[in-house]
Amino acid sequence: MLNLVLFGPPGAGKGTQAEFLINSFGLNHLSTGDLLRSEIATGTELGLEAKSYMDKGELVPDEVVIGMIKSKLASNKDAKGFIFDGFPRTVEQAKALDKLLKENDTPISGMLSLEVEKQELINRLLSRGKVSGRADDQDQSVIETRINVYNKKTLPLIEYYKPQGKHFGINGMGTIEEIAGRLKEVVGKF
Ligand code: B4P
């Protein structure tokens, strides 16, 4: 079983490259961002709570996202493996994920960390904002907040996975195809 964490700052290409990994390796996709946006779209209580954080560029509380992942893992017990996209985003979430995967004895195989320059992140998100209607992609100050939150709360995860030999840095600059090729080379070795 292959369980991968697709990691990187907002706009690094996580969602984009997840598509490619699903197709190439037959894994299930678990994106907390997509799950939260679907809760917002259907107007659930969870969605309403999440929206207030997401629109400001802040992280949704750990217990909310951990609960969502827990129920998705429980309802996909036959999966060949998962791509965790945008999760974990805090050390607390990583510890909770390890605990959940331990119950099935299927630990994380690797953390694929997409590395992209800050100005490129801003350009990508602002250009998505013009077509996607995503509130958090339309305002440069919200994008800056997301990048700052990433640096403060999410980046320390590299130091969580590194000592376990699970951190793989990948150059996330270039075309979507070039980056997919780099990912394929790393994942092919697992
Ligand atoms: P996410 O949905 O995870 O949003 P994201 O970080 O911007 O990543 P995304 O996958 O959408 O973008 P991508 O890099 O693929 O999270 C949104 C919010 O939800 C968070 O801010 C937070 O509030 C909340 N949330 C989610 N998970 C959480 C968690 N675990 N804990 C707490 N809160 C959580 O790509 C961006 C754009 O770049 C796309 O338009 C794409 O087309 C473009 N692009 C990609 N690769 C490119 C390339 N090589 N060249 C040019 N453009 C490229």
UniProtKB/TrEMBL annotation:
State the function annotated in the UniProt record. Answer: Catalyzes the reversible transfer of the terminal phosphate group between ATP and AMP. Plays an important role in cellular energy homeostasis and in adenine nucleotide metabolism.
Species of the source:
Maribellus comscasis
Any Pfam family the entry gives: ADK
**GO terms, molecular function:** AMP kinase activity; ATP binding
Q: Which UniProt keywords are given for this protein, alphabetically ordered?
A: ATP-binding, Cytoplasm, Kinase, Nucleotide biosynthesis, Nucleotide-binding, Transferase
* InterPro entries (UniProt xref): Adenyl_kin_sub, Adenylat/UMP-CMP_kin, Adenylat_kinase_CS, P-loop_NTPase
Q: Where in the cell is it found?
A: Cytoplasm
Q: Kindly list the positions annotated as binding ATP.
A: G11, A12, G13, K14, G15, T16, R128, G174
NMP: where is this region? 31-60
Is this entry keyworded Disulfide bond?
no
Q: Which NCBIfam families match?
A: adk (TIGR01351), PRK00279.1-3 (NF001381), PRK14527.1 (NF011100), PRK14528.1 (NF011101), PRK14531.1 (NF011104), PRK14532.1 (NF011105)
Enzyme class, first EC level, given as a word: transferase
What GO terms fall under cellular component here? Answer: cytoplasm
The entry sums up its family as follows: Belongs to the adenylate kinase family.
Q: What is known of its domains?
A: Consists of three domains, a large central CORE domain and two small peripheral domains, NMPbind and LID, which undergo movements during catalysis. The LID domain closes over the site of phosphoryl transfer upon ATP binding. Assembling and dissambling the active center during each catalytic cycle provides an effective means to prevent ATP hydrolysis.
EC numbers for this chain? 2.7.4.3
Report residues binding AMP: T32, R37, E58, L59, V60, G86, F87, P88, R89, Q93, R134, R146
Could you confirm whether the keyword Cytoplasm appears in this record?
A: yes
Q: What is this protein called?
A: Adenylate kinase
GO BP: any one term: AMP salvage
**Subunit notes for this chain?**
Monomer.
Q: Which reaction does it catalyse?
A: AMP + ATP = 2 ADP
This protein's pathway reads: Purine metabolism; AMP biosynthesis via salvage pathway; AMP from ADP: step 1/1
